[in-house]
């Protein structure tokens, strides 16, 4: 099918997929005649894209029309719907129409349903930053793609240090690929600490420090994260995910649940063996404190979304959390 829908917040991997599509269908010598990129926020952008998609190829290769960051999957007029219904079934096989959006298409809208009937759909969503197992698998997959051999400890280190930043994962692994040509064995964690450009702290480390009630260390981690251009709301997302996981596990422990598989499923953890370690982490923490922490984190997220100054707001709420967990 000559129609495509790429969506998701992982703009780096989405861009790579667009580049692959360009290489596949376009002749570089005829690029200026057969390739158009259209901003999706323009009033007539969809009409323009559909008209260009129906235009015959000029010269060699095929045609690609990219409607970038389109809004038709969140709001679409009746006139646009009619044009979609009329055009999509008739796009020539030598023309390719690509829709991209960072937002998930609203499946209830007719525009989404029409495009889904004709389009090849790919999702490019970021892995939640607290799902370290999934991020580790992603790092391993990219390392194999680039040709870098890493020990299990090195893989875990990269996953925890970089998180779900796909762009940085590729950048660091590409650098490691050059270094690995000079060694004959898989790279170890000790090799990476001097080679990889990462924050010295991570949001997951911040969560652990808060749980331990160490306010001074928590403030240092916040400063380090912000100095490394970590997005405040992303920090909060990681904290919420981690404290939610701890809360679920603690509640199941208090309910005398013995089956780690049941607990893992409730906490959305793929590997039940991790439950043993997570149980130890919350052993001395009350469920009341964990539930209270989620309320504080919700207030923190709301304050940031309302435009509060990030550093001062993070410092205040994180100190409040540390005080909550500090042992008397």
Automatic annotation (TrEMBL):
Gene3D superfamilies for the chain: 1.10.8.60, 1.20.272.10, P-loop containing nucleotide triphosphate hydrolases
UniProt keyword list: DNA replication, DNA-directed DNA polymerase, Nucleotidyltransferase, Transferase
One GO MF term attached to the UniProt entry: DNA-directed DNA polymerase activity
Domain DNA polymerase III delta N-terminal: 4-120
Record GO cellular component, one term: DNA polymerase III complex
Protein EC: 2.7.7.7
Similarity comment text for this entry: Belongs to the DNA polymerase HolA subunit family.
Cited NCBIfam families: holA
PANTHER family linked: DNA POLYMERASE III SUBUNIT DELTA (PTHR34388)
Full protein name: DNA polymerase III subunit delta
Organism: Aphanothece hegewaldii CCALA 016
Lineage: Bacteria, Bacillati, Cyanobacteriota, Cyanophyceae, Oscillatoriophycideae
